Amino acid sequence: MTQEPVTPIKSADRPIRSRPPRAGRGRTPSHVAIAERAYFIHLEEGERDQVANWLRAERELATA
Questions:
Q1: What φ, ψ does residue 46 adopt, rounded to 5°?
Q2: Which residues contact 25 (CB under 8 A, 6 or more apart)?
Q3: 41 closest CA partner among 27, 28, 52
Q4: DSSP labels for 14-54?
Q5: Distance between CA atoms of 20 and 40, rounded to whole angstroms?
Q6: Model pLDDT, residue 48
Q7: Fewest CB atoms within 10 A around its CB: which of 39, 41, 46, 61?
Q8: How many CB atoms lie within 10 A of CB 57?
Q9: Nearest to 63, CA basis, from 55, 13, 41
């Protein structure tokens, strides 16, 4: 049984694929952006619960 030689695929022959967006997830905000937003939430509303401010800032920035 003889086999034909395999021709390597050139990069121009390959279809171009892009990554699909992540389902159900927005962009991931940076640590600095979250900290800044949490600080402004504290100034605006006077909330003393830092964890609640942080989580609210994360939610707001992830959906923006």
A1: 70, 20
A2: 62
A3: 52
A4: SPP--PPPPTT------HHHHHHHHHHHHHHH----HHHHH
A5: 34
A6: 87
A7: 46
A8: 21
A9: 55
Return phi, psi of residue 22, to 5°. Answer: -70, 130
Cβ–Cβ contacts within 10 Å for residue 49, how many? 10
For the stretch 14-46, pLDDT in tens is 666 666 555 555 578 999 999 999 999 999 998
The predicted pLDDT at position 20 comes to 56
C-alpha pair distances (Å), 50 with each of 26, 28, 39, 58: 23, 20, 9, 12
If you ran DSSP here, which 8-state letter would residue 48 be given?
Answer: -
pTM of the model: 0.57
